[in-house]
Structures are given as structure tokens and as C-alpha cells.
Amino acid sequence: MQAWLCESTTGPGALVWRELPTPEPAADEVRIAIRAASINFPDLLTVEGKYQVRPPLPFVPGSEFAGRVEAVGSGVTHLKVGDPVAAIGTSGGFGTHACVKAQQLIPLPPGFALEDAAAFAFTYGTSHHALLDRGQLKAGETVLILGAAGGVGTAAIQIAKAAGARVIAAVSTDDKCAACRAIGADDTINYSTESLRDALKRITGGAGPDIIYDAVGGEHAEPAFRSIAWRGRYLVVGFAAGGIPALPFNLALLKGASIVGVFWGEFVRREPAANARALAELARWYAEGKIKPVIDSLLPMSEVPTAYRRMAERAIKGKLVLVNG
Q1: What pTM was computed for the model?
Q2: Is residue 159 exposed (0-12), middle (13-18) or buried (19+ Cβ within 10 Å)?
Q3: pLDDT for residue 53
Q4: How many Å apart are CA 145 and CA 149, to the nearest integer?
């Protein structure tokens, strides 16, 4: 097999393409012939040594991928050679093969494209957990999504619309505004050219959004929170902008608002049954055409350095997917 190997956590520039022995699955594992893998923001943090989970060196990065079962370890009974599956974890995807614990795999229903499957669980799982579980989103409410053109942002737009919400997408360029409107956003804000607070006041008639979905952090967090509706919920999803904002607690008091943490990975670990129900609902919505990953581009697996560069530059609309063969 071949794979990109991270031998030091000094950033994407240290990744090297290596020929490695093809692994044999252990008793509780299967080997996957990887068809496609997507890049997520945590993949960048992981090779920089900044993510919560730090795989031991050396490791193959790539936290989300899909392919077909190629070999099955003893004791694995619910999967067989040829089955299409998706995997999500902290590493292993940026190569041609990977061995994964069988219980961590998501069997794919008929008609689920492998390229879509490689760009699905991480972003849609996060956004479903954020909006419907942690945010308790109700039909008719208004959702503001910061950084709405990225992977979790585009998933959040589609999930919020499927749940019957009004969606305001906030992004940094007019091109990204157009991309968000194309997948269902009701209103858009270019916060590079317009005051976020003024735009929210205009769009909501002064009422503010009921839910703020923030995977960006940084300078827009406080003005967004100052605009939140009475009993609003501010979902803390991530900090793609790099800066971790400090929100004044008096704002939560004045608006009767909640600041709600969203950590999908820990939710998966602690509440696997609830996560399984959420993924089943998402798979059903995919089959019904209500949601579909926004694929920015398909690149060969050899272009992993390009994928990391574009992720660092925040130049990806939706998900960038790398493919083998």
C-alpha cells in the first residue's frame, strides 16, 4: 500500500508519500480499500500537533474516508468482503488502504456514492448534533451560520432547512454568499463588506437569530452574540479563525441566552446509540434528496499537500475530496 505519512507534527509540509506494508486486519478489524477521503479542519490541527487527540508518530492522517471491505478479521460477522463502508476517526484516510475496528465503520446503504460518503459523517454528524440535539432547533426558528460556506457550514444550512428553519448564512465573500444561496440559505451576509450586527437587525427586523452556529470564533463572535434573540442558543462548534473569543457573561443574562458547547467526537464516544439514530436519520434524508455533501472538488490522493494548503487558506467551499484510482 501507499500512504501519506506524518513523521513530525510541524505541519503539512512534513508529510511524505511512502510505500508501506499492506496491513492485515486484527480480530476485531477489517481492511478497507480506500476509494475517497475528505479533508477536515481537525486534519490540519492534527498534523500541527494542535488537536485534542494526538496519534503517536508516525501516522497516516485523514480522519474521514470511504471504500470497500477488502479483508475481514476473525470474529467480524456483520461485514463481508465487498461491502461499502465509511470510516471516521483521527487518522488513516490519506492512503490506499487502512485497517479499522469493525465497530467504528458505517455500513453504507445502496446508492450512497463513496465520494459523498467520504464527505458526510463528520460534517453532517456535527451539524445534526449541534442544531437538533444541543440547539433544540424548532421549525420556524431563525438560524445564523457563521462560516457557512465551509464543510460543517454547508451541512448546517441543509440540516436547518430540512428541519424547517429560516437560514442566514454569514461568509467572507460574495462568491460564498452565492454558493450558500444555491443550497438553500434564505439570506446571506458578507461580513467583509457589511456590519454583521446591522445586517442581522435588518434581516430579522431587530429580533435577532434564535440559534447562532459558530464554527469560526474570532472577531465575529461577540457582535453575533450581541444580536441574538431572547432565549437564543449560541452553539460553540469550533475556532477555524484561530482566535478563541471571550464573550461577556452579562450578554447571556440580558438576553436570557444559552452558550452551548458542541463536541461531536465526545458525543459519539459517550452516547453511541443516540449518534447511531442521528446518522440513520441523516442517511434517510440523503436517500430522500434533502441533503447532499457540497463537493468543492475531487483531487487525486497525490494532491494531499494542495488540499492542506487550501484548507489553511479557508479556500474550500463545502468539502474537498481526494480519490484513489
Answers
A1: 0.89
A2: buried
A3: 85
A4: 9
Residues belonging to the chain: 325
Cα angle 5, 38, 147 (rounded to 5 degrees) comes to 120
Same domain, 142 and 27: no
The answer on 127 and 105 residing in a single domain is no
Does residue 305 sit in helix, strand or coil? helix
CA atoms of 48 and 12, how far apart (whole Å) = 7
Range of the domain at 105: 2-120+293-323
Q: Is 154 helix (H, G, I), strand (E, B) or coil?
A: helix
CATH number of the domain that 217 lies in?
3.40.50.720
Euclidean distance between CA atoms 62 and 84, whole angstroms: 18
Give, for 99, the enclosing helix (H) or strand (E): strand 97-101
Q: Is residue 141 part of a domain?
A: yes
The burial of 19, by beta-carbon neighbours within 10 Å (0-12 exposed, 13-18 middle, 19 or more buried), is given as exposed
Q: pLDDT grade, residue 145 (50/70/90)?
A: very high
Q: Are 238 and 41 in contact (CB under 8 A)?
A: yes
What residues have CB less than 8 Å from 84, skipping those under 6 apart? Answer: 66, 67, 68, 107, 108, 112, 114, 117
Alpha helices in the chain (DSSP H): 41-47, 114-117, 121-128, 151-162, 174-182, 196-204, 221-226, 249-255, 264-270, 272-287, 304-312
- pLDDT of residue 241 exceeding 90, the answer is no
Residues 6 or more apart in contact with residue 50 via CB below 8 angstroms: none
Residue 305 belongs to domain with CATH number = 3.90.180.10
Would 278 be classed as within a structural domain?
Answer: no
Domain assignment present for 280:
no
